[in-house]
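Incident log, structure service

09:12 report received: a user says their structure output differs between two submissions of the same chain.
09:20 pulled the input from the user's history:
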Amino acid sequence: MKTALVFGGTRFFGRNLVEALLSKGVEVTVATRQSSPDPFGDRVKRIKVDRFDGEALKEALAGKSWDIAFDQLCYTSIDAEIMSQALEGKIKRYVFTSSGAVYDRGPDLNETAFDPYTYALKMVKADEVSYGEGKRQAEAYYFQKGVFPVVALRIPIVLGMDDYTERLLHYIKAIHHGESVYFVDPSVEMRFIHQKEAGDFLAWIGDSDYEGPINACATGVISMETLMHQIGDLLNKEVIITTEEEKESPYGVYMTRYLNTDKAAGMGFSFTALQDWLPQLIRDVHETIK
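09:34 re-ran on a clean worker, output below:
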């Protein structure tokens, strides 16, 4: 892997991916429709284009080629079709960020728990299906109609200081201000991944010859009740969990669902332990509201 094209490389763990590629000596081209500054300076090349505009994308990529493309912005089968048509013959490999949401509920889910090779393919837009179904359809398109080798990275909720969704911040703010936090079922368990680890893993799997879906997340399972009390302990605040008063709750899922990473670990990737970095992240996020 000497050259890489990155869609979605200017925010959150897309930035970590670009930094990881640069650290490997890869020549990176960032494709974005934004004009806002990024931290890369003259270390990357840039293409300004709307990834979801098929004709504009074909025009912007005309006459260019890369060893690999990374796509953080593929949400549906229609998105996958746009990218396939634009990149056919221009890359050797393609890695896109899918989601653990492709799975149904359950603990310790390995890659065989959802099979995109046989899943009924439908051409859908993001506003027509749930997030998880959109990702299932994107995977189904690539693995059934793909025109280049594909890796689908299945990850859980990503945590980090650059998380523009502010989901962890939501709970830290509530506990800081003495407000209740709502969960349908506080005993529901999850795994998470740090934004740096997500970026590092993307670059690592991109440098391999692996094809197909693959899970990635930090080791260690945590229930939402335990996570809230960990936040309370670190902030020295009382935690009030309610299952009665329905409120906004970004992690308020109603089922345990977490990923098994034996495949990636067996290939040689060493995952972090959640509790090695979660406490400090909670402290750092808390500092932003003081």
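09:41 both user submissions now match this output. Likely a transient worker issue. Closing.
09:42 reviewer note: The two ends are 44 Å apart (CA to CA). The first helix runs from residue 13 to 23.
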